[in-house]
Fold:
Amino acid sequence: MAFKTEHMTLNMGPQHPSTHGVLRLELELEGEIIKAVKPHIGYLHRCFEKHAEAMTYPQVIPYTDRMDYLSSIYNEFGYAVAVEKLLGIQVPERVEYIRVIMGELQRIASHLVAIGTYGLDIGAFTPFLFCFIDREKILSLFEMTCGARLLYNYIWVGGLSHDLHPDFIRSAKEFVTYFRPKVKDLNNLLTYNKIFIDRTANVGILPLETAINYGISGPNLRASGFEWDIRKDDTYSVYNKFNFDIPIGKGLQGTVGDCWDRYYVRILEIEESLKIIEQALKQIPEGDVTSAIPKRIKPPVGQVYSRVENPRGELGYFIISNGTPNPFRVKVKGPSFVHLGVMNELCKGHMVADVIAILGSIDIVLGEVDR
Amino acid sequence: MKNIQEIFSILKEKLSDFALELTSSQPFEPFITISPLKINEVCLFLRDNEDLKFDSLVCLSGVDDANGKTIKDENGDNKIEGGTLSVYYHLESTKFRHKVVLKVSAARENPEVSSVALIWHHADWHEREAYDLVGIKFLNHPDLRRILMPYDWEAGHPLRKDYKNPEFYQGMKVPY
Structure:
């Protein structure tokens, strides 16, 4: 005798620990198999873009901090690069080096959160604590530099709010030496853990063509096996002066582009960031960091799209200037917003429990999705 | 790798009746203006042409140009009449590494633009965002709903330059 079956709709969220914020996923289920996922976003919408139109160019910077609050420095960095392009100004070398050092430290901190919470989502509690201990040390470096631990307002258009603390270089060097071996601990604890591999390998496979069509960027795109990094392919700041590799997903535990690959690319990127920081700390020149800050920012009429490689992917700013001190339009292309759009494609045919594994692996920050 | 001049001449040659126009003002990015109802055909050509292969849409932004006439309505609020709303498309080829910027402008009173969401899935959410915040209607979009604002938001589109916050939303006071 055949039973009658029907699809069931299940709401996951908006309040759910593993959604990393406020996100509602509407799942359409056939038994435990997912037929479709519809993300509903906007719970944290503040309309940053509208705020920006009412501010002068420098006043926008603290707002950019609050989009992706796990990589604030990089949001400022991207915005500063975009406005500098509009103004056509060159910033001193020392400023560029400090920006790169801060940006890469931020990348490590952000990846540590991604890795730690990913373990937590899947049921491994200990790696989370390990990651947060080390992240605290990075935040202390930021605190030493600008007094804030999360939202910095440190990178300004044309320069920095102030120079490094005299002890910073020594402390940063100490941190790099201290942190290098920790990555190995993390590998032993989580990366090659049998249960972790069972939960993530061959789950949520993202083929390269789909990834490009959906506009995926950053570690998620690289995990699908494509060597693409804006730091190298559309270089900005002083990234062309450093030697580093672009890690890509190779399907070591399953298929190229699965959850494990997306996780592992982040581990490898931490090591690359350490390489960059080490070189930058060695080469950093002396100089004045505030000399190029313009007194009055009034870009000529025009528009510019400028992008940087944020820890999550490509962060683009599209700014239109109409010749006044306020931007006419600021559009942010945030990687988290884009990556969430591919959820449906990734989850189809998987089990309900895999949704958490997949959502954790694409590493979104809802503050940036909703802006 | 081709620059925008070469891309423009290829377009001009292959799609001559599409009212194309190249605007380049140094030092900023030049862009190609296309008529709003033809953008999907141009994009499909750009994606599939063997020499161009624009397989990636980098960014899609809706803009209120605010180039109409500003008048006062019966409540004394500013209202813009006439003029255009625009959409900018930033495309890139991951194979050839060249880039191009396209622009379409549609009349403010009837802002209809052909959707490219079936050409690049990436455009799906960005077009929903442009619809939600700027109020551009994308024809043939698979699922054109609001995305960031509440689904039952009735006060219009926030990124319009003449947008005014409502007093109340669902009985809650809006201005704070």
Notes: Residues 122-133 of chain B form the longest helix (12 residues). Chain B has a mean pLDDT of 84. Chain B touches chain A through 32 residues (CB under 8 Å).
